[in-house]
């Protein structure tokens, strides 16, 4: 782990050097701290791939698709294209898979970035395109980014809702809108693990779920705009109601992101919370967001990154935001090597012993250790409602490691609590 942080520091140093080559214009203090409507004159479209060279324009839809394909042509040994699917209006939902092909590549943990599920939140779209370009161009030349690519499989989906972004037509983002072509807010319509209601899953989300399920992502982020804050799970609850098992880890990771960005501009990430980090439900509770779905069902830690106060930045600000965010975005990929053990496992210090259960998540049979002889074990749902009481008498083994095996296969998938006299453990049932 120490070695890894050294690598992170080196990556940071490299990026500062890269960023210093491009003059900062306009100055950071010229940027507004309030939400504004962009000046329509400053939304310029790139109509060829070459016009994207300075990263100060938005690509038309055909230019976007061509950029993605050109990377695959130019770096065939480093990346390939995954097509997540085709939108309602027939546009491609693409993800670039970046992993130098070697014998051990399948053992590297999988990371996923996705942006612009809200079609009018465009900053992340451009940041993701530029991130792809930087990662690919740096392989073999930057030792730090080469090490990151050699240790991680990275997938990047720059545009999750192309119909929303190109709602006004393929050649402009001026009429972009939040929803998909059916007027559905995609980030409110993923299966909600905490309030399972029969709800039809919109087309693009069905595609995304199939794609996510086919991969084995361990860390991901979904980029949005309209605020500047690192929003960590759960979105369905306040921190007090139901803290995510790794809330503290999220806070550390979120602050690292924000503090790194603030070395570029100390005024950023201040509109929602002082440290730029918040538990989703403490900001406002939503249901059906992708973040909670991914964290709960997919064994993957995902956070929602709100990366710019304005949803559609004037073009001349795009290079500034890259300078602000690039180091943080790259470092966040590296956080995959600092993950807590496994989502779903939570041991709460009780009295004399530490209660643990495994496997966790489980499909039914679960072994609980660290319980006291002759006591009962209560199974509660995540709201604390008692569902069942087990006696430990017969099952307990006469040893210091007191163990009981329970069968939860008749319970619906979800988050449960196992309460014993020596502590409580959280258990995820699949
Ligand atoms: Zn959004």
Overall 3D shape: globular
Structural class: alpha/beta
CATH topology of the largest domain: Aminopeptidase
Helix content: 25-40%
Calculate the mean pLDDT score and round it.
84
| Oligomeric assembly | single chain
Q: Label the CATH architecture of the largest domain.
A: 3-Layer(aba) Sandwich
Name of the CATH first level of the largest domain: Alpha Beta
Q: What's the Cα radius of gyration?
A: 23 Å
Number of helices: 10
Description:
- The protein is of the alpha/beta class.
- The chain has two domains: about 30-340, Aminopeptidase (3-Layer(aba) Sandwich), CATH 3.40.630.10; about 345-430, Immunoglobulin-like.
- It is about 30% helix and about 20% strand.
- It contains ten helices and 18 strands.
- It has helices spanning about 1-20, 60-75, 125-140, 145-150, 160-165, 205-215, 245-260, 280-285, 290-295, 320-335; strands at about 45, 60, 80-85, 90-100, 110-115, 155, 215-225, 225-230, 275-280, 300-310, 345, 355-360, 365-370, 375-380, 385-390, 405, 415-420, 425-430.
- The chain has an eight-stranded mixed sheet, with helices on both faces. Strands 11-18-17-14-15 form a five-stranded antiparallel sheet, with no helix packed on it. It has a three-stranded antiparallel sheet with strand order 12-13-16, with no helix packed on it.
- Strand 17 (about 415-420) and strand 18 form a beta hairpin.
- Helix 1 (about 1-20) packs antiparallel against helix 10 and helix 7 packs antiparallel against helix 10 (about 320-335).
- The radius of gyration is 23 Å and the shape is globular.
- The two termini are about 30 Å apart.
- The model is unreliable at about 5-10, about 10-40, about 340-355 and about 395-400 (pLDDT under 50).
- The structure holds zinc ion.
- Zinc ion (ZN) binds near residues 118, 121 and 224.
């Amino acid at each position: 782990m120490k070695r890894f942080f050294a690598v992170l520091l080196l990556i940071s140093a490299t990026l500062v050097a890269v960023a210093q080559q491009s003059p900062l214009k306009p100055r950071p203090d010229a940027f507004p701290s309030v939400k504004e409507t962009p000046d329509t004159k400053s939304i310029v479209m790139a109509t060829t791939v070459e016009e994207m060279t300075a990263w100060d324009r938005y690509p038309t839809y055909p230019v976007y698709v061509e950029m993605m394909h050109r990377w695959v042509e130019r770096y065939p040994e480093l990346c390939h294209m995954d097509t997540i699917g085709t939108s309602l209006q027939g546009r491609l939902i693409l993800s670039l898979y970046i992993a130098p092909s070697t014998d051990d590549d399948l053992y590297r943990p999988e990371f996923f970035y996705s942006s612009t599920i809200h079609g009018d939140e465009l900053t992340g779209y451009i940041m993701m395109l530029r991130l792809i370009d930087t990662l690919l161009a740096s392989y073999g030349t930057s030792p730090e980014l080469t090490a990151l690519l050699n240790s991680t499989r990275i997938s990047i989906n720059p545009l999750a809702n192309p119909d929303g972004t190109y709602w006004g037509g393929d050649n402009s983002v001026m009429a972009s809108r939040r929803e998909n072509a059916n007027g559905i807010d995609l980030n409110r319509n993923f299966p909600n693990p905490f309030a399972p209601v029969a709800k039809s899953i919109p087309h693009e989300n069905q595609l995304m779920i199939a794609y996510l399920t086919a991969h084995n992502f361990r860390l991901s982020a979904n980029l949005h705009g309209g605020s500047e804050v690192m929003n960590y799970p759960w979105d369905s609850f306040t921190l007090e109601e139901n803290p995510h098992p790794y809330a503290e880890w999220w806070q550390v990771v979120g602050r690292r992101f924000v503090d790194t960005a603030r070395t570029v501009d100390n005024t950023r990430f201040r509109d929602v919370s002082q440290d730029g980090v918040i538990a989703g439900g403490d900001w406002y509770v939503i249901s059906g967001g992708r973040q909670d779905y991914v964290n709960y069902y997919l064994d993957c830690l995902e956070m929602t990154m709100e990366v710019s106060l304005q949803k559609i930045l004037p073009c001349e600000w795009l290079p500034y935001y890259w300078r602000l965010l690039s180091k943080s975005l790259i470092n966040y990929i590296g956080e995959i090597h600092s993950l807590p053990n496994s989502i779903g496992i939570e041991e709460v210090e009780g009295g004399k012993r530490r209660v643990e259960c495994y496997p966790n998540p489980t499909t039914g049979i679960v072994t609980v250790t660290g319980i006291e002889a002759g006591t009962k074990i209560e199974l509660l749902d995540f709201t604390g409602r008692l569902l069942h009481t087990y006696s430990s008498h017969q099952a307990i083994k006469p040893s210091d490691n007191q163990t009981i095996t329970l069968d939860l296969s008749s319970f619906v998938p979800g988050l449960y609590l196992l309460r014993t006299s020596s502590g409580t453990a959280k258990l995820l049932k699949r």
